[in-house]
Amino acid sequence: MRRANVIEKDTASxxxxxxxxxxxxxxxxxxxAKVKNRATLSKQFFQLLWERYTxxxxxxxxxxxxxxETGNGRKxxxxxxxxxxxxxxxxxxxxxxxxxxxxRGSTDIIVLxxxxxxxxxxxxxxxxxxxxxxxSDSYINVNPVIEAVLPYSSIAVYYEEYLxxxxxxxxxxxxxxxxxxxxxxxxxxxxxxxxxxxxxxxDEIADQMEITMMSLALSQTILESGLAQAASRFxxxxxxxxxxxxxxxxxxxxxxxAKRSESDRRLREVLVGIKKxxxxxxxxxxx
Amino acid sequence: xxxxxxxxxxxNVIARAPFQVYYEGEADSLSATNRIxxxxxxxxxADFFSVLHPGDIVxxxxxxxxxxxxxxxxIITVRDNEVRLFVNM
Lengths: 287, 89
Fold this sequence. Notes:
Shape of chain B: globular
Distance between the termini of chain B: 31 Å
Radius of gyration of chain A: 31 Å
CATH topology of the domain at 55-233 in chain A: Pyruvate Kinase, Chain: A, domain 1
Order of helices and strands of chain A: HHEHEHEHEEHEH
CATH class of the domain at 55-233 in chain A: Alpha Beta
Oligomer: heterodimer
Mean pLDDT of chain A: 81
């Protein structure tokens, strides 16, 4: 049996660990609430912009929404992973899911997040570009990623979707189709150059709107992934905290047993000592 | 002049960034900057789409202090007396 003072030290360490996991759990919970609010605002913004975009008459053959005719004939898989660990097994599941679609000859991989990049490297899967997950309280700059994916004919994004605090799933979307899906209910009358002033020109404004919408669609997947990772982190911390509480209980029990055992041992030693003294005293009396 | 402005003498303004609402409501005027220079949107403005340049957006409503916020980029659309500003994207 371990000594009581050793167990006491371990109990103190587990107590600190429990407090830490509790703090991480609270942080993850706050993060979930914050990101959910940003995701809602972003969806509203996209909807308002899309209403205006769908109303302007532009040549669909030139548009981003018609990538199959204008792209480079290759497919790009964009992987949105966590910037660091502590997000459970979500990134591993996402990479396993992506591997089913990955064809080395005709597909390139762009990865966002250090955790995903290291997981790909461990599996020997090459990626052509790496970006840190762009994050800010007010602005997500995805322009470098958009520039990297624009030449491709097909753009698939793998990300982690938040379903609930207890459930997160790996999702795959076609970015262009996703842009169209986000705007399902948007309807607005036709706007033409005959009745509207365009500055600098209708085409340039449409280009700007498309890039913005594509950035927004990508930003939303990043937000969604952040939300899922925060939820996953929350769950991991909850499990860790529960385990720490269990351990703490076990350690306390072990500590009390060890204390009891030590005091019993001391008592035995004292009793043995008394008996010995009595025997010695009795032996001296007999002489 | 659009039908709404003739009655209201106000413009409806929605000014948003992807994660932020700067202004939503009626206003007397809105000032911004595009490639040509500074311009104002007043009630009854013609339908108008423009790419914005960096600068301040100024929204004036009544005698209240104007709402002023800086932008780095944006698109303005004016349609039927409703102004939508999509900024800092």
